[in-house]
Amino acid sequence: MRMGTRHLTALAALALLGGTPQAPADTPADYRARAPQEEVVYFVLPDRFANGDPRNDRGGLKGDRLKTGFDPSAKGFYHGGDLKGLTARLDYIQGLGATAVWFAPVFKNKPVQGPPGDESAGYHGYWITDFTRVDPHFGSNAEFKAFVDAAHARGMKVYMDIVVNHTADVIQYREVAKDGYPYRSKADYPFSRKGGVTGPAINPGFGDDSDPAPANWARMVDPAFAYTPYVPKGEEAAKVPAWLNEPLFYHNRGNTDWVGESSGYGDFMGLDDIATENPRVLAGFIEIYGSWIDRFGIDGFRIDTAKHVNPEFWQAFVPAMLERARARGIPNFHIFGEIATSDFDPALLAGWTRKAGLPSNLDFGFAVAAVQAASGARGSDLLARWVDDDVLYEGGARGALIQPTFLGNHDAGRFAMFLTQLNPKADAEELLARDMLGHAMLLTLRGVPVIYYGEEQGMIGHGGDQLARQSLFASKVPQYNDQPLLGSAATTAQDNYNPQHPLYRLIAELAAVRRETPALTSGRTLVWRSSDKPGLFVVSRFDPVTGREVVLAFNTANAAQTARVTVAARSLEFTPLAGQCSLKADAPGSLTVTLAPLGFAVCAAKP
Ligand SMILES: [Ca+2]
Ligand SMILES: [Ca+2]
Ligand SMILES: [Ca+2]
Fold this sequence. Notes:
Number of helices: 18
Strand order of the largest sheet: 12-11-10-7-2-1-14-13
Shape: globular
Low-confidence stretches: 1-23
Largest sheet: 8 strands, parallel
Distance between the termini: 42 Å
Bound molecules: calcium ion
């Protein structure tokens, strides 16, 4: 290992950025005016961020962890984080340069579910029973209001994570489950027969579920076309609003096998899959989530499992939410869906902005391309292709500006984990430098950067899902605490709210550069140089008003790189916004870029 060179690269970049992180200075009056692409989003699981009130750790429930869901030593249970903790630590989030907070669902969940011996808790928030109130583990609706108001007072926005596809697993089936509940298709189990094509006729006159006419759905009276659903004794009123307790409003076709028809109609491992084709369901969800806009004035929605809901639902739901927000004085309400994929597949993501009218979707394409490039596992060719494919989005490349980009998340795993897996022989110094390089891409390339909480403290993790959900407060989970953090001598066994962590500082500095540079929030992108092998990736972005060019250069190789790259002919002199830049063009249209191993630079042309 070339002692110190790579580390110096990262530190040199930081030194050039200089200064202490500056918090955004927006006042409550002007945060509503910011467009979605002007935000930097911090994504947090409330259970894993900060514990502001130990009295709510058990959610007001009594008994062992199978009753309360609370066990801070087990990765699949509640650990104690809450809204009070999130509110108290807003300084930390704002200091990072984040201007918006997206948190996993805060709605009341079924505390524990799963087969005997394999139970886990709703600490992640995706097993909702009551859609109208905050889960008692996280606090009260009043504490939620205090959180939203505190964020707004700082000029920060609040994005809620919402679920429409399913509720908690409450509904069960009468049939005996030998192999679980395999999916029963619409062809094998039509709505018109009980238990298959040879069964007795039911639901006379019901046509197709693609016909949203209320008169059609009035003829849907028996939900036992595939399996025979029922609500177990004691759980008849578990869900709020009350209409959600009625099995008629669910698909009841058994578990999804993730492909084809079952992707939209099947239960996620028993989670009750909602009949989102039903106009009563659509109206119900418009009321549920519209009410959160009305009551709290929140600024946007991240939509969970959006691709498992029929596009027609979103075509009606999205405009209804945007209208509700406009009426509440929120003109820039942001909506982004989860169209989950581990593939590089911009067409899939863009397709849902067109067929479903989802304004934006989490950019899984960027995540794949950036992990591949920043890790050095392959070149920057996927990143170049990613820029090319922006034309596929509704609104074309301009529409692509509001797609939220990210490097890792709570399901697939953390960015540092991918870097580690793809570079099994790299030392901590190289991994930190590559982590910084990835974040430089995230914070300067197109899209709305999303920081997954803990990235800024160098959290790694041994995998995805539960293994990628460490707490920022001192953890008692052995599978978390056995691993050092990147860029720090600490582990997750202690509190980690360190604003001096090199990743925290880098993110804060680049977020400030981004905020002050319209080319980076709203400019078009031109790729000048990419390669199918590690090396230079160079693009320019252009101020949407002045046309001023900003050159972004990244070196994904372990060796220094120098090259002439194309720039706009009128860009003759440059100022570094980060890293080191040639101050003058070699000739109109040509600039020399020199980068240290794993270095990067942001070079703004002078007007
Ligand atoms: Ca707590
Ligand atoms: Ca569904
Ligand atoms: Ca169920």
